[in-house]
């Protein structure tokens, strides 16, 4: 690992948790021993090459974040205000990164169990000038259906991957991709798609089954079980 701090992290935690219901944001709920968001904050602050983590929060929390958020390296922490959509939140995080950042990681706080080995892999590709997506190969048989649920065809799964985060990019690449998205008002479900649309080279690296995206209530139990097995 390089000791030159040239990596910036945009940690996206601005979602409204609408699928879970209730008043508490899922990124603030405790899971596997600490608030979900804190898992990722502390992971990236373990790295000596990380110059800054920009944590993108909903507007009502950005000015007064929960106190536990400061259980990390506060000298390398900025809090930014999220947008209406994920793409806008990432763009605001990019704008707040310090000038000396050359490699940008984007990670969803909803994936609290990502391992350092995955972070190493995406950074290595970004240093080589490519965009990198942590991903897992599709192993299930895929069916395409019509609106009524009738099977139209079976889709070949060869070469298909399930994209995760973290994703990493040379800074110039991701900034150009988001500048174009801002001009057109067209964002995507992940950063890699914007870079692909601009013709940049993007590769997949091996992700992790542990990097579950917490979306439904049952996902909390799954992550808790994974954490127990890891101990």
Structure in words:
With 231 residues, the protein is an alpha/beta fold. It has a single domain (7-230), classed as Spore Coat Polysaccharide Biosynthesis Protein SpsA, Chain A (Alpha-Beta Complex), CATH 3.90.550. 31% of the residues lie in helices and 26% in strands. It is built from seven helices and eleven strands. It has helices at residues 36-45, 59-62, 86-95, 116-127, 171-184, 191-197, 217-230, and strands at 7-12, 30-31, 34-35, 50-57, 77-81, 103-108, 131-137, 142-145, 151-155, 161-170, 202-206. The strands form three sheets. The protein has a seven-stranded mixed sheet with strand order 5-4-1-6-10-7-11, with helices on both faces. Strands 2-3 form a two-stranded antiparallel sheet. A two-stranded antiparallel ribbon has the order 8-9. Strand 8 (142-145) and strand 9 (151-155) form a beta hairpin. The longest helix has 14 residues, at 171-184. The two termini are 25 Å apart. The mean pLDDT is 93.
Strand residue percentage: 25-35%
> What's the N-to-C terminus distance?
25 Å
CATH topology: Spore Coat Polysaccharide Biosynthesis Protein SpsA, Chain A
Count of discrete alpha- or pi-helical segments spanning 4 or more residues: 7
